[in-house]
Amino acid sequence: MKNLIALTLILSISFSSVCFSQQQSSEKERAQAIYLGHKALIETQNFQFVANWVFRDDARKEVPVDRNTIKISQSNLAGLLASFGNNEEAIVLNGKINDYSTLFNDDEQQIIIKIKTDVYDIKIDIKSNGKAFLVLKANNLQSMTYRGVIAK
């Protein structure tokens, strides 16, 4: 009887470690697939950042995605992002991209995009889980961070 209990315990431990190992590898495979998809999209320089949260200092708010999207199209930038101003008018981003650079970290599965226009400095950091963070800086505007996703 003791042998049967010991055998059952050993098999249970072995089975759970195999399941855990398979779960970790499938998460890595999923992250790799997300990263490769984003990498291919970013290389085209034709994509969108769709924001669902905006942050400034200690404040944050959820924003509607249909009105918080910017489109990067080769050498142009266009779209709207929410602000934290008194009247909370949208920030209009329209214009020519003066500088566009990307950094692909294949080991960490992270992508960093830097965009400069005449008015704005933008940094987009795409994490391995697919979430993207955009930092918007301008001369007349306090720096704001947006969380969202990258889309075609």
Q: List SSEs in N-to-C order.
A: HEEEEEEEEEE
Main beta sheet strand tally, sense and closure: 10 strands, antiparallel
Say what the CATH topology is: Lipocalin
What is the mean pLDDT? 82
Number of strands: 10
Q: What Rg do the Cα atoms give?
A: 22 Å
Q: Just give the CATH class.
A: Mainly Beta
- Count up the domains: 1
Q: Bin the strand percentage.
A: over 45%
The separation of the N and C termini measures 61 Å
Global geometry: globular
- Helix tally? 1
Could you explain how this protein is built, in words?
The protein has 152 residues and is α+β, with helices and mostly antiparallel strands. It has one domain (39-151): Beta Barrel (Lipocalin), CATH 2.40.128.410. Helices cover 28% and strands 47% of the residues. The protein is built from 1 helix and 10 strands. Strands 1, 2, 3, 4, 5, 6, 7, 8, 9 and 10 form a 10-stranded antiparallel beta sheet that branches. A hairpin with a 3-residue loop joins strand 7 (110-116) and strand 8 (120-126). It is globular and about 70 Å long. The relative contact order is 0.17. The mean pLDDT is 82.
Secondary structure elements and their pairing?
Blueprint: H1 2-43, E1 46-56, E2 59-62, E3 69-73, E4 76-81, E5 91-96, E6 99-105, E7 110-116, E8 120-126, E9 132-138, E10 141-151
Antiparallel strand pairs: 1-2, 1-3, 1-10, 3-4, 4-5, 6-7, 7-8, 8-9, 9-10
